[in-house]
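Incident review: delayed structure delivery

Summary: a single-chain prediction request sat in the queue longer than the usual turnaround. Root cause was a stuck worker, restarted by the on-call engineer. No data loss occurred. The affected request and its eventual output are reproduced below so the record is complete for anyone auditing the incident later.

Affected input:
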Amino acid sequence: MSTPPTSFVERLEKLASASSVVTDAATLEACSVDGARPAAVVRPGSTEEVAEVVRFAAAEKLAVIPMGGRTKLGIGMPPRQYDIALDMTRMNRVLAYDPGDLTLGVEAGIGIE
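Output delivered after worker restart:
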C-alpha cells in the first residue's frame, strides 16, 4: 500500500461525499488484496460518482481496485500499488427488465443469489 497524504482522503471526501468514503481499519482490512490495504474505500452511488473518483485517481496517480462481493481478492498477482478500493455494492439496482427477451440490465453492484 502506498501512503498518500491526509489531504488525499480529505479531497476524496469532498468529491464523493464524506458518507461514501470509509477509512476505518476494519473496512480497510476487509478490502485488502493479497495483504495490500487501501488508504480509503469509496462506495459510489451513481455512475457519475464512479467517473469522478476514477478521474480524481488518474489525476493524482492513485491506484484503484473495483470490487463487489469481495470474493476472490487473493487470486492473481498482488497489486504493486493500491490506494482506493472502489466498492460498487451501493449500485445495486435493476435498470431494465424484458421478460420477453429474458434480458436484464443491472448496475455493477448487484449480487446474484
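Verification: The longest helix spans residues 47-60.
Action items: add queue-age alerting; document worker restart procedure.
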